[in-house]
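Let's study my pick:
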Amino acid sequence: MTNLYIIIILALFAAAIYGFYWMQKKHVKFSTRVFSALGAGIVLGAIIQVILGAESEVTIGAISWINIVGNGYVSLLQMLVMPLIFVSIVGAFTKLGVSKNLGKISFTVIGTLLATTAVAALIGILSVFIFNLDGATFVQGEAETARIEALGERQEAVENLSIPEQVVSFIPTNVFADLSGSRSTSTIAVVIFSAFIGIAYMGVNKKDPETGEFFAKLINSLYKIVMRIVTLVLRLTPYGILALMIKVTATSDVRAIWNLGKFVLASYSALAVVFIMHLLILLVVKVNPLSYIKKASTVLGFAFTSRSSAGAIPLNIETQTKALGVDEASANFAASFGATIGQNGCAGVYPAMLAAIVAPTVGIDVFSPLYILTIIAVVTISSFGVAGVGGGATFASLIVLGSLNLPIAIVGLVISVEPLIDMARTLVNVSDSMIAGIVTSKRIKEFDETVLNDEAAVIESSI
């Protein structure tokens, strides 16, 4: 009977896939298809969860097949990350005006990411106070104990990391290895390598314009090819989101969510406030927040379901340049750095909350202004090099708690609700990278208001 039930679930999934294919043939708006897939995934996942349970053989078996579509889609997006970053950044150097703005772009992007992470950390701490979670204890069963032991082994791999060592790790030593994404800092390493290629191009172009022109045409051709591949992959978004959402909903641990409900609510409240902060920043730079929400909804929806900041980079760059009016250089720097530095959700709110929760259990006055500033400083500095894939928040938390000499058990106790919280964290991470791109583009006066105000200038127009 198990195989029969699995076949029935897969048949329903295949029917939903065909439904979205039919919608595409009928030229239904891309954003409509994406959010319809989001809703359908929640409904189908909830049905599986209620009828069969998260740990039944049928659920596990069906999800393993459905994962082919969901994880396959995320893998295709991650496949595009390195070539897209390379051709986009090098291509930006081949255009006029980039050289004089390079310093401003780098400084503004990184400065915005770190500043917002510091504020996000403060918001996380305040949410702990508001929900009276400081000093809170959570249920520890056999599963949690096993996770804590595993985290202890993982902490050994990060406890010797220092900020200077993290900075050095950004520098590429083997660019071919970094192009394959072999390290957590590979994205930044490729950005740096691409910048060197761009600077070298400018030098060659001055001395030998003919060679420079040939190189520029080559990069432009490569850029068009890569962007065409991006378009082909993005057409699979509704199917990928459907599969990813079914998995998240069907396999969520309802008991753990119930036991940790207050922590989940506090986390979502803090992340919502951080997102509001992003909208306030837009007001400051004179960008309509409602236009931003409307045009960024597709990539934010993908970030929410996929839980991968790195996987969202192609869609992130597409959204910034084609829907929001951000120049190519700012968009590529912001999306690339935003996937590994200063993530507001994973490296800001989450580790700050855990530090504030656990500090009172070891006799620390977490209400002390000096200690609050200490947490914010450690969180901000530690936000360098946090991988933009699943597990980045755990990595950041281990670094922060270890730096503050706090017990890491709290990470294992709340890890059951990680997938649920991670969806909102990733959305906030991606939003922050786009905010950094907008702020930077505004500063260098390359922001195109006409694209932002053009309702037809949306991602779906090219999909």
The mean pLDDT is 84. The two ends are 41 Å apart (CA to CA).
